[in-house]
Amino acid sequence: MAIRYCRKCVYPSSSAAPLTFDEHGICSGCRVSEQVATIDWSERRAMMEELVDQYRNPDGYDVLIPVGGGKDSYFQTHFAIKELKLRPLLVTYHGNNFLPEGEANLQRMREEFDADHIIFRPSQDVLIRMNRLGFTLHGDMNWHNHCGIKTYPIQTAVRYRIPLILWGEYGWMDLGGMFSYDDFAEFTAKTRVEHDLHGFDWHDFTDAGLERLGRPELKQGITPRDLHWAQYPGDDEIDEVGVRGIYLGFYDAWDGNRNARVSEALYRWEAARQPFERTYRTISNLDDMHENGIHDYMKFIKFGYGRASDHSCKDIRLGLMSRETGVEMVKKYDHVKPRRDLERWLAYVGMSEAEFDAIADTFRDPRVWRIVANEWVKDNLWGGESAYGPVHLAANDPRRARYAR
């Protein structure tokens, strides 16, 4: 089936965040975003105040906030402290790939908010092996980040007996419209595995897990002891504390651009000093330099679009960008192979570019890509088709049959 593109934003039907299209060719993400203008946000604010009042703790922390030092976690913390008058515990999973300004923003949070802040840094050697394994097994070198962010804060909530966790926006609703603003979706162990961790869990990355998956050749010498931070608490532990994860985006009209302005104006937060190679925004993903770089390039390899599409969609829905400009951003950035970022990552994990390209090709979505004269070809958002580089699968590789048209 041919890839469709939303007529309002620039998302394709191959989107990593599942979406649907209505009879007018508008995607579900855009339709859900239209609800923002119809909501009484003062009523939502009252609902949230009533909710958090149940968790105020005069003898400890009122709420736990997972933070990465970005504009959104600054705003979450600002909202909790200044608007709701809560005492938070800030918790960070540190994946070892912060930009310098991102690291400075992270370290500044404790001072700016006068808040207790736990920063957990896993072994660098384990993280390097997890980068390499995540890429070869799943095409996602940042899988460890998804796991750490959605596991270590919950471990900490159980350890410190803090029932309430405050997340930011609900990403699957924000991007693809998986839920309505009236659903008030909350964090669950089920969505952690199925959505955030893409169906894998920590045990799949151990040597024993790779044996079970039938991929023993990928073993990295990782044991359960290496991944204690990745092991989600048991149901009995969760239930005893009553851990509950809510999303601020259901109670506040979420806007990343607004979050950046507030963070810059009130808390000395700093955007990226150097432009990214794959998107026009400099306010997003400073906690992992590869999120806008080689990790995002893999999204283009897999699904045929990238971070510039994500950012354009957000800004189109906020009324800050026309679709025509969004198309130009996609045309300029989505296909770019980020040289400085790739070189850093290859040196980090000890891999050649030829090996990287050969592995990357195995994750291409045949709904998007086809092979023509030994080149990868896809249909474009702006019409027509283009070739985007040579095929790195061997000529006799049986996987080539997937892309025959």
Describe the model.
This protein is mostly helical and 405 residues long. It has two domains: 28-37 and 271-403, no CATH class; 39-250, Rossmann fold. It has 17 helices and eight strands. Helix 3 (71-83) links the parallel strand 1 and strand 2 (88-93). Helix 3 crosses helix 12 (256-267) and helix 14 runs antiparallel to helix 15. The longest helix has 15 residues, at 124-138.
What brief labels describe this structure?
405 residues, mainly alpha, Rossmann fold, 2 domains, three-stranded parallel beta sheet, three-stranded antiparallel beta sheet, globular
What is shown here, in short?
Helices cover 41% and strands 9% of the residues.
Topology at a glance:
Elements: H1 28-33, H2 41-53, E1 63-66, H3 71-83, E2 88-93, H4 100-113, E3 116-120, H5 124-138, H6 143-149, H7 152-160, E4 164-167, H8 171-176, H9 189-196, H10 207-212, H11 235-241, E5 244-247, H12 256-267, H13 294-303, H14 307-317, H15 323-333, H16 339-349, H17 353-361, E6 370-372, E7 375-379, E8 385-390
Parallel strand pairs: 1-2, 2-3, 4-5
Antiparallel strand pairs: 6-7, 7-8
Helix pairs in contact: 3-12, 14-15
CATH topology of the largest domain: Rossmann fold
**Overall residue-averaged pLDDT value:** 96
Our count of domains comes out at 2
The biggest sheet, with number of strands, parallel, antiparallel or mixed sense and barrel status, is: 3 strands, parallel
**Secondary-structure element sequence?**
HHEHEHEHHHEHHHHEHHHHHHEEE
Q: Tell me the fraction of residues in β-strands, as a range.
A: 5-15%
Question: Helical percent range?
Answer: 40-55%
Q: Unreliable segments (pLDDT under 50, ≥5 consecutive)?
A: none
The backbone outline, from C-alpha atoms, is globular
